[in-house]
Structure formats: C-alpha cells, structure tokens
Amino acid sequence: MRIYCAKDYYHVSRVAANIISAQVIMKPDCVLGLATGSTPIGTYEQLIRWYEKGDLDFAEVSSINLDEYKGLTPEDEQSYRYFMNTHLFDSINIDKRNTFVPDGTEQDSEKACKDYEKIIHSHGGIDLQILGMGHNGHIGFNEPGSAFDKETHCVKLAESTIAANARFFASMEDVPKEAYTMGIKTIMQAKKIVVIVSGEDKKDIVKKAFLGPITPEVPASVLQLHNDVILVGDEAALSEYNKAVQ
Asked: What is the pTM of this model?
C-alpha cells in the first residue's frame, strides 16, 4: 500500500485528482469506479478545473458508481445519479451513456444487482476505484459484518449510516433504509484502489482499518489484501496511523 499524507483537504483532493488524471491520460478508455459523499467533491472539482483548462479528455472514459439508494429516481436530488451529474458529469465531456449507477427504481433487488454485475463484467472490470470510508469502516454501503465474498447486493443500512446521511434529507424518516451497493468482492476486483480520507474524525478508523486485524467487522480492513491500494489522507486523518508506524 502506498500512502500520501497531504496537508489538508484541498491538497488531498489535488493528490487524488492527480492519480485519476494519470489513469485517464495513460488509458483514455479506462473504467473509473466512482464514489459519492462529501469526501470526493474536492477531487471532482479539481478534475473539472483541469478539464476546463484542456488538460483532460473524458470522451472515451466509462464510469461505474459504487452504489445508489433503493427507491430513488435519477431525478431525485438525493439520488447518487443526481449527485454525479451535478458534481462531475455535467461539467466534463464524458458520454453519459457510458456512466453507470445502480438502478434505484428497480424494486426487484436480485435483478437490479445481477444487471449491475453484468455491466461491470461487460466493461472488463474497473481500472481505478475511488473509495471513501465511513466512521465504522464501511466502504460503499458494505456495513460491519458484511461478507467479503459478496458482489453487488441490496443492503439494509445501519442506523449510524442513516444518521450520517440524514443531513441531506428533510428528516431522518426520509432517508432510504436500503441501497444497492457493489460488494466487497466486486470492489476488490478493481485493478487499482484509491482511498480518500480527511479530517480528525477519521483518525481512529484509518488506524483500525489499515493496521488492525482483517475482519468483516471493519469492512475496509480487507483492503490490506489488495495488491495496489493508495491511501490519500490529510495530516489529521492519518495522525494515529503515522504515530503507530513511526
């Protein structure tokens, strides 16, 4: 695992954007695994700036997102499709026909998940997967206790995740209770993985995930077994990790 310790969130975002840019430049028709949430927004903003300067071309890129709330339409402002359009796709020259997010409107969970796995496999897998990490170590919507051998599946969200996402909705009751997510097996099949972490509130889980035992109780800990992981974090998020390895 390679680690980049940046000064703050702005610099974390630039480092992550640099890694993504290198992937796009080296393989213009690459498949990017993308994430939502507050963590990657700065990275997407940097990619947009470089695109606007003419430094990047996304015309041949395909993207496959980690997850989507079950029950939300693409037009819903809280859907992850809407998030990706707003924070990245609408501002670059990617062909939206080549951008994929699980179908939150599909009520048949088994069909939705099988269809998504077919999309991933038809593109030859993911070249570079971007991940954030929850306070309980979840990646995607794979909560503590998730089996490491699962592919795309429907999950009932943990109360802590529902509470964390409530700030985006009018009330706690409005937060979807289920989501479609890539499973840990699917994530681990990506050729390269970049984990982005920022803030002092992530310092304990970073240490636990990357220096603790590999256990389903800390889903991100499985990343220790991947042969090409890059951890990009700011000084605050990496503080406990750095103390432990010194």
From this structure: 0.94
